Amino acid sequence: MANNYSDFKHHFYGLDTFQGMPGNSEENASFAQGSFYCSLDEFVQSNESEGIRASGQIKYIVGIFDKIKAKRAAEIDRMQPTAIVNLDCDFYASTESALSIIKPKLVQGTVLLADDWNTLSSERTNGERKALDEFLEREPYISMEPWFTYMYTGQAFLVHVDEK
Q: Domains in the chain and their CATH numbers?
């Protein structure tokens, strides 16, 4: 599917710092600051080797989520409603910021993939679990139905949006 995505009529946005893991309050050695580094050029080359080419439909946005939201608000407003969100944020603060960006784009039936749902000992007091719990408390018209688990740490959800 990914090999043919550049021909798909919908848009794909990849948001990342492309600087490795940020500093964080979770203090987990597996996610030390700077680990998992991949430059934007390396990322683009890797995608292109799989047939995924940057185009009008595929865009990469570099930066910290809060800064992206502030600096590119008009572009975010123009983005289509989301069909699939791959939330690969690892940490509480990153997830909280990402959720604030995608909130207006969530629609009934959006698939949300929480890539790091079962990291950090699967505790509800940090990481993606804490951020999503708090998000759902603030947004009572949005709910998440667990759908399936994937790999070792991921959890897929179906998004339900009730009328406000």
A: 2-161 (3.40.50.150)
